[in-house]
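Task: encode each sequence below as structure tokens.

Item 1
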Amino acid sequence: MSLFPIRPRVRTAALTVVGLAAAAVVASGPASAEPSASPDTSSPPAAGRPTVVLVHGAWADASSFAPVTERLQRDGYTVLAAPNPVRGLVGDAATVAAFVNQATTGPVVLVGHSYGGAVITNAATQAPRVQALAYIDAFAPAEGESTAQLSAAKPGSRLAGDPATVFDVVQDPSAPAGDPDLYVKRPLFAQAFAGRLPRQTARQLAAAQTPAAAGALGEPSGVPAWKTIRSWFLVGTADQIIPPAEQFAEAARAHGVVVTAATGHLAMLEVPAAVAALIERAASAR
């Protein structure tokens, strides 16, 4: 049985309610009994600037963008993290589009990491105020392509091997039979996703990963928003999850602006300043 079942492309208005898991990295050392408050040096949101909406990838949550969010807020941007259930590409995109349409006003820059790139590719076609797309080590599929397919399109992805050696499989009794939750095996996660981060941080991220429904990774994309919306791409040249060659190929067909960084797959944690700079570049383009 394939671990990546393809679901029928059915639009639904039902919203999946999922638990929120925080993957916080706690600094070592004793906590102060009365911590002193740090002054708020961030700039207030500037009128006329687009809102930045962040969409995390699979096996992660919104905290993966925390260092980027801090920089953007300091520079005066309104930043929101959209929910990404990772239950199915059509449903995930509808969830993000609903968030953009109802929780924001004015123009929006939609940012996606990894699987989140596939989500924004589909969500932005349903959210008319999105003026720019930013892909951070992310998939930008064409119509009919899935993230599982694109992972293996070019050599070099550590997820493209035998699924039995890549994933731990858990069948959630509340999910459809045959569409299990996937977790990247913890040692592989620490090496392939987070191998350029401190070892303890990598182990904590591996332990805190949230599941991805197998069907979400195998579900084909719809008409891509990058055909009509300007796109920016940050390509990590040491990415072991989405090979750089694949990211370059997807960026080229989208006629996107490409910036490279010497980083692995978790660019938001490794080079947050470069990620924030790319997003601000997309936000300021006219």
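Item 2
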Amino acid sequence: MPKADLHCHALLSAPVRTYETLLDRKIPPFQGQGFDAFSDYVKRYFKPFFRNRTAFRRIIRDAFGAMAADGVTCATPGFDLPADDLSGFTLPEFVETVAEEIRRVADRIRILPELTIKRGYGPERNLMRLRQVIPYRLFAAVDLAGDERDVPCREFVPLFRYAADQGLYLKAHAGEWRGPEEIADAVHLLRVDALQHGIRAAESEPLMAVLAERRIYCNLCPGSNAELGILDDAAGQIQKLCRNEVPVTVNTDDYTVFRSPLSREMAILRTYAFTANDIRHIAENGLKEFAEIEQRQATES
């Protein structure tokens, strides 16, 4: 079926063999749990290639190709907002490289790139860089990512107000490592359109009611949550969100690390007792959300 991947980090969305070719050796599967183990794994095997223009292009190209081969018809891959000068290529080259690779696959998959804001860089530094990137008018959304325990999302209110004024679709990682209180801040203070993860909203009936009423999407990643050991009962949490009419989607998060394409993420739902019709409905939610992002970008353009 047609699918949308709305929570995927671009430079961790290529097949692992892409990185193995760049490294000229095999990469062992990720076997840790928790955010620190995940970060260490990424830094060791993947991060050195993020700022090399040749490798950067190869990774993006293979990521988009893998998505299309898996039946993904539209995606919003996140690109880390450079917090420092890029080593190896300039900011204009960074933007043009992304734009060129999007054009290459335009006949197979629709891509709306988003800027990923890393909490660890702090709000002021991120806002400065965001102001430098916005004039290129390439990116359709902004997403606050990183360890929720590092810097609370409430610190990024000015950045999100600026992003909203620029017409960007607003996302934030919340409800993965912290509970409903961080989700509530993302909803009420950042005024997000969608939550990346957000699965722990299931722990609060009032919060689920708000998400359902405002149609704030929860872009879930079941495989990622299972691998990182985030929840004991992911099936129950997702079922509860759906019963309370929270619009949920299913996505890959980091295909390179977890080696689980979107078709497999959808299949995981069958093990959670979701029917084929349930899964089709969730897939349709993803296509609807993508259309909303696309419409906002067209309006602003």
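Check on item 2: The two ends are 30 Å apart (CA to CA). Residues 276-300 form the longest helix (25 residues).
End of task.
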